[in-house]
Design a protein that fits this description.
The longest helix is centred in the middle third of the chain and has 14 residues. The chain has 3 helices and no strands. The N and C termini lie far apart (about 30 Å). Helix 1 crosses helix 2. It is globular, with a radius of gyration of 10 Å. By secondary structure, the protein is mainly alpha-helical. About 70% of the residues lie in helices and about 0% in strands. The chain has one domain.
């Protein structure tokens, strides 16, 4: 596990969320090395 936390910019988050729509959260989490909790939080923010 990395000690450095990645700061995702807006464009990267949108890209990952598009990937999630096509491939699912679990796969996106593995592909981009981001937690599923972070993806759910981004999704919630984008929907509101």
């Amino acid at each position: 596990m990395s000690l450095h936390r990645k700061n995702w910019d807006q464009k990267e988050k949108e890209e990952i969320l598009l990937f999630v729509q096509q491939h699912g959260i679990s796969r996106a989490s593995r592909e981009f090395n981001v937690s599923t909790a972070a993806i759910y939080n981004w999704k919630k923010k984008f929907e509101s």
